[in-house]
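Reopening this ticket.

The earlier resolution said the output was attached, but the attachment link was broken on my side. Pasting everything inline this time so it's all in one place.
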Amino acid sequence: MIVSQRSKRFLRRVAITILLIAAVAGGSLAGRAYLRWRQRPSATPTARLSLSPRETPGITSTPLVQPPPTRPTEHSSRGSVHADESQATPSPISHQTEGPRRPLVQPSATPTPRGVITYTVKEGDSLWSIAARFGLDVDTLRWSNEALAHNPDLLSVGQELIILPVKGAYHTVQTGETVESIALAYGVTPTVIVDYPLNNLHPPYQLEEGQKLIIPGGRRELHWPKPDLSPDSPFAWPVVGEITQGYSEKHPALDLGAPYGSPVYAAQAGTVIHSGWARTGYGYTVILDHGQGVQSLYSHMKGTWVTVGQKVERGQLIGEIGSTGHSTGPHVHFEIRVDGQRVDPTDYLPAAPPH
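Inline output:
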């Protein structure tokens, strides 16, 4: 068979093309075999090498030595809207190499209440503002600081106050006291005292003299005598106490001093015509109408226990001794008014105030 020169050249080109294709295919197979050999398990880790400094479509080039993981920054942790989440590299804190998987954040134990702190009174402070600052009430401050128990107005700049972590009372153990007797005195159950962490009490709950105990929710009852009804007198004394300021033209009333929280009673039967805060500087005030143009007024009280329109009897509880409004200490400002005029209460009361 005679083959022309042109045909020979064509066949030669076909043969070269086939050889080139075979060479490329062989090189690819060899490369794959080499990769499989490099990826086999090895006891000694080796640095990953790049086959080519140039990137090939579908294959991501890897540097010669992997850099150590870096702490993620705020910018890097945000990611990109184009990022493929399945391709994300796990952060070092969540990477587990061995052992059981643990939560990233360990659950915390029940927090222990903050301890008892000391607060130094500053200019402009009042018992009410200090109580509000620490989420307490005035009674908690009173029953935590003996100096304030009977007179909450004894507050001065630089004075140090005990601040409890909860509403309640702070008790100093006396000889012979038990958890049960202390709980009874403050109106709580013994478990309230023994279960409070800061008291650090353990069975059999032996107390020592001078030991300090926090009484959550505890309140001390003030046992104060009740004045005599004095039925032979136009009015009875509204409180057991002493006259701290008498009647005069400049002070047409009696100021009757008594411990803070002492009960205040109606001096005569009547109808409540005012019960609440007075804008005249009297603080919490109750006014009773007794008929025939006679009224009695009780002010600077801690609060009121009656409502407008209520009928009260002689000797009925209407409030408690306080120091609200323009007051210099715990007392009740007591007035008797006849036809709108303030008169001397001692003309209508028994001879001497009960003590």
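Reporter confirms the inline version is readable. Confidence is low (pLDDT under 50) at residues 42-110. DSSP finds seven helices and 14 strands in the chain.
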